[in-house]
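Sample 1 of the test manifest.
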Amino acid sequence: MKLGRLNHIGVATPSINDSIIFYRDVMGATKIHEPFDLPAQGVKVCFVDTPGENGSNGTQIELIEPYDEHSPINGFLAKNPLGGQHHICFEVPDIHIAKAEFEVLGKRILGEPRIGAHGTPIFFVHPKDMGGMLTEIMESPGEGKH
Amino acid sequence: MKLGRLNHIGVATPSINDSIIFYRDVMGATKIHEPFDLPAQGVKVCFVDTPGENGSNGTQIELIEPYDEHSPINGFLAKNPLGGQHHICFEVPDIHIAKAEFEVLGKRILGEPRIGAHGTPIFFVHPKDMGGMLTEIMESPGEGKH
């Protein structure tokens, strides 16, 4: 595997609405996307763009709020009521090749590849196999053969 | 304030050496900088580059390991023995203007601006005022009047 773009950092929040106000009024974000529901993942999602180098697009902040009482991030928010850093997400050119590479290395993949917040296939790798960080692997938009 | 580049995410680790092997051999990082000590901050530091869009430099991973038994990240590692996401760092053009802006908003600045791992002035903002995230504010290299 070759290290890909850090697509986003996933930030859990008890309220996407409050976080939008924070990123707009405190941090000065100028591009905040429309929130949307991702019920298959149990979250509501809102992307905040950060500027990259030389006018490029930088790593996004992915705000995630529980979709319902079964959300996989409810436990995180119970421990961190204000929210906080939940996961990081790196891009790969092909999700199936990436999955095979992690598996060869004995890394535990959490479930099968599925469609993520950017509309491309993703999977998560167990934080205990990744230096304590819940890590999302995401096929780059426009690439791969999904 | 206008949202600046996400310069790096700070990742605590019990061993920078082990983390270098992880980022090189598992994640496929190709540019891993020389580790160095930052005793004033109580950490050893190693930057791992990630690729940005269109050949630009992306957000870095800042590996931080305790420098000694007084390190401010010892508590984090006691709770998270494998390491994990510790802070995020955004760039600003001028550290003193940024400090004044946060203070007007009632955000708690942790100490005075001081020289950070990239050689420019930085300060941290209390995670309880920042959606649960310990947030570093860093003057962009080559900018400002420090």
